[in-house]
Each structure stands twice: as C-alpha cells, then as structure tokens.
Amino acid sequence: MNHLPENERLGAYLDGELTAAERAEVERLLAADPSARQLVEELRTLRTTLQELPPLSIGRSIRNEVLGRVEQPKATLAPRPTDGDATETRSSWRAMAGRMFQARALIWSGVAVAVAVLIWVMEPGRRDDRLAMTEAAPEASPSMRAYDDAEATGMALKEEPYLARKALPEAMVAESGPAAPRAAERAESDTSGMADMPSSGETRGRGVGQLAEQPAPAAPEPLALPARAAPVDRVEKPDDAKPSEVAESLLVVRCDVTAEAARERLFERLLESRQIARSEPRESQERFADAPAAGFAKRSAANGVEAEPGGEVWFEAEATLGDVVALVGELEKRPEQFSTLSYAYLPQTSAGSFGGAFRGAGQRFGAAEAADERGDAADVAEAEAAPSSALPFQYQGLPELPPKAEVGAEAERLSRGESAARSMGRRPTLLSVPRQRIQPAPRQDGVPEATAALDDLERALSEAAADEEEPSGRIRVRFVLNVVADETPGVAGSKPPAAPPAEAAAVEAGAPAAEAQAAPADGPE
Amino acid sequence: MSDEAQLIAETLAGESAAFGQLVERYQDRLFNTLVHVMGSADDALDVVQDAFVQAYLKLDTFRQSSTFYTWLYRIAFNVAASHRRKRRPAASVERARQATQFEPVDAQPGPEDEVHRAERCRQVRDAIAGLSDEYRSVLVLREIDGYCYEEIAEVLDLPVGTVRSRLHRARLQLREQLKEVLLAED
Hints:
Chain A is of the alpha+beta class. Chain A contains 23 helices and five strands. Chain B is globular and about 55 Å long.
C-alpha cells in the first residue's frame, strides 16, 4: 500500500471524492488489504483531529478598518509597510544585490566601450560608413541600434560582423536601445535604486497594492485570449520589473509546440492571458565573448518568427512560480498543441560568479552545438561524451532527448559549474525534471505527469528559496518552445523537415483555418 | 436575488455599508483559515484586511459564477502568497505558537483538560505550520474549511489532480509529525 496513487485514492475515498466505480474498487481493496484499512483509519483520525481544532476569531469587527481604507483615495491604498525585521532582511539583500549589480553594470559598460573601440579601430571602412549614418540620422534607427547592441554585447562580431548584425533580433532591439546608454542607465538605476527603493509590493509587482492590476481573481471563466497576439517585434518589459531586483535564478521550461500553434502565437497569448509580462532576454549580456554566443544570435533571430517544424521559439519572463504553474496548467489543457514539458531550475547562488556558469545550463546553446556550428567534430564529440551521471548535482538528465544538443551541452555546462563550485568549496544544486509527456487524460483521473513533475519542482524550489533567503517570489523564466510538425506532436527528438518557405509563407498569410485550431481546446473549468 | 447578491449590488451602487456587512459575515471564517495558512495571527489579520480591501476595489469584476466567499478566498490566497514571500524565512513553529495566543478558552472543562487540550492544539497547529506552503494551503482549505476538491482547485487555481496529490502528501507528512498525538486520540 505504499504506491502513491493508491494512497491518494484512499484519501479521496475518505473525502467522498471518488466516483461510484472508484469507491467500489477502494472498498474491495479495503476488504482485502489490512494495511490499506490501517491507513484509512489513521487518515480518519487525523482528519478528526484537524476538524476538532477550535475555530479562531478576530474577536472584534474589522468593518470600520476595512471601510476606512477603501474610502481613502485610491492613491493612498498602498500596501502597509512591512515590519522591521522583514524590511531589514530585504534591505540588506537589496544592498548586496545593489553592490553586485552596480559592479556588474560598470564592468559591462567598460566592456561595451572597449569592444566598440576595438571595432572602430579594426574596421576603418565601415567606420566611415557609420560616421555617415550617425551624422545623417542622429536618432538611432532600429538597424543602428542593432549594431550598437551587438557591439555592446560583443556577440560574434569578431568572426561574423555582418552576420551577427543581421541576426540580432528586432525583438531585442526594439526596446533595448543603444547599449552603452542602457548600461549607463542601468548603472544609474542600480545605484539610485538603493536610496529610494520602493516598498516590496511595488517592486515585485505582486504586492498587495498591485493586486488590482492582476487578472481579475473572479470566478473562472473561459480563457479570454486576446484576439490575436501582436507580432513579436517588441518585447514588453514589465513596468515594475527591474532586472537587478529579480533573483538570478533561472527556470527553463521547455515544451514541444505544433507548428500551427506556434504560428498562431498561442503560447504568447497564454502568457498574455496570464498577464505574465515578457522581459528582455539578458542572455546577450551574460554570454559575452562566449563561443555559444553565435548560436544564441541565430536562435534569437528566430525568436517568434520561425515557427516551422524544427525551429525553436523562446521567451523570457520574470514571474512567480505560481504564474508558471498556472501557465503550465494552461499548456496541459491543450495536449493537441503542447505535447511535452521539461524543466530545469538553476538556483541563485550566494556569489554571482559561478551563478553565471549555470545560467545557460538549461538551454541548448551549449558547447556541443557551438562546436557543431564551427564544424569542429572533435569538440562536438567531447562535449557529447561528458556523462551527466558523473556529475555531482541533483540532476536527473534528459534521458529522452537526442544526445547532441541536450545532454552534451548540459554536461559541458555542468562541468564548468562543478569546477567553479569546487573552487568555492561549495556544491551547488541544479534541479531538473526530465521531459514529460503531456497526457490528454481527464484531470479528475489523476495528476497529469507534467503537473506532478512541476509539483515536485515547486516544492524543491520552495525549499531552495528558503535556504537561499531569496526574498523574491519572482524568478527569471525562460520558455523554450521546440516547434514540431502538426501531425507528430510529442515525438521526442524528432526533427521534422522544415516546411518549404513558400508553403510556410502561404500558411502565415492566410490563417483563418489555423485560427480555429488555436482556440483553446479545453477552456478552464 | 439572494441576500449576498443584494449586498454586492448595493455596494456597487455606492453603499459601502453593505460591504461592511459582507466583511462582518466572513471576517472570522477567513481569519481562521488564514491563521493556519500564515502561521501567525498578526499576518492573518493583515491578509484578511487587505483581502477585503482588494475585494471591494475589484468587486465590479466579480461575475457571481462562483460564490462571493470563494472569490474572496482567491483574493485572500493571492494576498497571503504575497505576504509570505515578504516574510520568508521566519520560523514557522514560532509563528504557530504565536497563533495559539488566539486560542479560545473554553471554561467548561476542568483545568487539566484545558491544559491538555491547549497543548494538543498547539502541537497540531505546529505541525500544520511545519508543512510547506503549497501543502498547507490545500490541507487547510480541505480540513479547516471543508472545501471540496473542485472548490480548492478553484481557489488555488490548480488542477483537481494536483489538489488531490498535495492533500494526500500533506496528510502523510502530518501523520508522521503527529504520531504521538494521534496515538493518544486512539
């Protein structure tokens, strides 16, 4: 009787939450199995004990207090300040984060300037072109900003300057602006932010005072998806999200999506319906001067537009785990469109230095892939050969995935993390949940595997957060969507051939048929 | 129109006194739940007040497809989650002890019974407070509030299967922590 689903049914039996057939089955089990009977009895006693707890009451009416607050002007309905102890903890955390980010921003500013100077010196012909462009258009055009951004991030400019510029996604450029000013702004905000840091509710975006901005907590209703998501040429940055205030942990949620759903931007609409604001990908800054950067640029260019099978679409957001759980719940309701899920959580580290070594570990932009792009077969083989099982982390691997892009890259990154961790005399923890197939089973018949996996992850995250004294409920989340052919969702590792460009364009242009498919197959109850 | 719907309509028409009646109707029930969820009477009181304020501000979005109380619970649990994040990490056992300061004193039993009962309540509440947040919320909604799985799923915005799973795990953990208390019950 140690099998959990069986146990769960015993609990549900006590609660009167089984169907007649299930109930009869459990009763047969109880008749035959003394240990099951014992468990039911213990659970019954526990329930009685809990239900006998005397109810607690406030002992007075809070009517006037509540009405007094609601009758104030709305502007004054800010959340109450937290108590001294909590504030102190947060302040010290912020001060530490502030110092770290201030230093980081200065470093990046310096790096950006250095790279810009380097390119300036090494490319005299283009320097002249740029001078002409700058004079002609003092307001940076998107392409100019792409150029500037590329300089600041150093993404592959040494090897393929033009390619890298072209590859930089509009999505990143549209809201990012020239990089050096942005870095300066960040340095400034990080510095000044320490002095006038707003209260936690304001900065986290999920504080009490901002609940009014959340999706209406009203009764469930059919998912009101926006009619059609806006094209992904702009990344909306949450107003209240300051990069320096979101924990450096990263949760990677990887999912297969059918090409049709990808073209219909169903995932983005789900993000919007859950009011999960997408944020600017920060990978470009973090992976500066790293070999996989070229791979990143290529993938970024595909962000949101390359919905053909075999493509990959990804998004970043700063969200609470509750947001992610809710979003995954939405994915699970649509097994026709979203077929598998996997997660990797890269926890915040006390010293930001080796946290950086982990940041990319949940992605595919690893050494094996980069080596592959360089055509270096030996490096690919080496990266792939690194066995994940030999790693000292709580890492379960991604057993169903093809070896090249996944395991090899993961292993390589973990190896780097391992050495960094050793040098710091500390063992980090990488939490990972392997790829799970979304089952189109009725929800009442049990927990879908993917949800159960996320459930485990959520619990582990709670513990990790407590250990790390991470004051924020928000973490960076990267959603990576692998686009698969419509007729073969969930085929692990399959790389269906990309649709011919002409055909893809035709689908893109005339999407009325796809519109219907993108509608939620199974709305919330 | 039910009495509750009437109060809501009056509130929306600008009669805030009607909302006051809703506050008085539900404040203690909500408080009792939230004391167990938050592990602290002070925090619970904060959350109750904030939840009512938010409910008032968002009342025009309430579509009455669920009960007002369930809707209020959803708000309260969102507020509670926000509070918990701000307060983390505090010693949950201490919070539970703080919660027991609100233990009502029943004058009927003799002094020894009363001491024994208070001690048992403290142990049980300590054990509840020792559960992780996600387990505790589900358990409290089921055992303290008597919500069915569907309602819990609605309040916490979870699939029913997850509710069942978490509830069972919460019970198993609690059973382990309360072995002695439960043996005494038998």
